[in-house]
Design goal:
The longest helix is centred in the middle third of the chain and has 38 residues, at about 100-135. Helix content is about 75%, strand content about 0%. It is elongated and about 75 Å long. It has a single domain (about 25-205), classed as Four Helix Bundle (Hemerythrin (Met), subunit A) (Up-down Bundle), CATH 1.20.120.680. By secondary structure, the chain is mostly helical. The chain has 6 helices and no strands.
C-alpha cells in the first residue's frame, strides 16, 4: 500500500491508529510536499500575469523545480515507512543462539541506517525548497503571499520533524562516526534553513 495513494481521510485515519508506521517521519515528508506544492502554486498564479512579466522566467523555473521537489517528498514519505518496517522485522528475528543474536543485531543496525537516511533526505529537500521559496519572495503574485508564508511554515515543520527522526535513530547506532556525521550535517542544515523559514514568514506578515 502506497501512502500517497490514500485519501487525506485514509492517511490521517492510519496515522491516528495503533499502527507504528506511518508516523512522524512520513508526516514530516507530507509537510514538505505541501510546502513545495504551495510554492509551485504561487508560481502558477504568477506565470502569465502582465504585472509580473519581468519575473516570468524565474516563476516558471521555480514552479518546475518545486514540483520536482514535491514529487521527491512524496516518494520519501513512503520510503520512510518502508525503512521502519525493515527495522521492525529485524527486531522480530530469532535470538536463541549467539549466531542468531549476532545476525539480529546486524540486521537492526542496517535497518537503523535506513531509518536515518530517509529523514535526513527530507531535511535536505526541505532546505532546498526553502531556498527556492525565498527566491520568489517579492517577485510573485501578491495575492498569494500568504501561501508563501504557509509554505515556509510547512517546510519548517518538515525539516524539524525530520530532524527529530534523525536524532532518535542515530541514538541507537553503534557506528558512532556515522552518527556524528549525521548530527553535524543535520545541525548545519538547520542553522541555515530555520532562519530562512522565519525570514520568509516575517516578510510575508509585514507585507500584509
Amino acid at each position: 500500500m502506497k501512502l500517497a495513494e490514500l485519501t487525506t481521510a485514509g492517511f490521517t485515519d492510519l496515522l491516528a491508529s495503533d499502527a507504528p508506521a506511518p508516523g512522524g517521519g512520513s508526516a514530516a515528508a507530507l509537510e514538505g510536499a505541501l510546502g513545495a506544492a504551495l510554492t509551485a502554486m504561487v508560481c502558477s498564479l504568477t506565470v502569465g500575469k502582465k504585472k509580473y512579466a519581468e519575473h516570468e522566467e524565474l516563476a516558471r523555473s521555480v514552479q518546475a523545480k518545486a514540483n520536482e521537489l514535491r514529487t521527491r517528498f512524496v516518494d520519501v514519505m513512503d520510503r520512510d515507512t518502508e525503512a521502519f518496517n525493515v527495522v521492525s522485522a529485524a527486531f522480530g528475528m530469532p535470538k536463541a543462539t549467539d549466531e542468531e543474536k549476532a545476525a539480529r543485531s546486524a540486521a537492526i543496525q542496517e535497518g537503523l541506517k535506513g531509518c536515518t537516511k530517509t529523514p535526513f533526505e527530507m531535511m535536505e529537500l526541505a532546505a532546498e525548497t526553502l531556498e527556492l521559496t525565498a527566491s520568489v519572495l517579492g517577485k510573485s503574485n501578491d495575492s498569494a503571499a500568504s501561501d508563501l508564508g504557509v509554505s515556509a511554515l510547512s517546510l519548517r515543520a518538515a525539516i524539524q520533524g525530520a530532524w527529530l527522526n534523525v536524532l532518535i535513530n542515530i541514538g541507537s547506532l553503534k557506528d558512532q562516526a556515522l552518527a556524528e556525521d549525521y548530527r553535524a550535517k543535520g545541525e548545519a542544515l538547520l542553522a541555515k534553513a530555520l532562519p530562512l523559514a522565519d525570514e520568509i514568514y516575517s516578510t510575508v506578515v509585514k507585507a500584509m
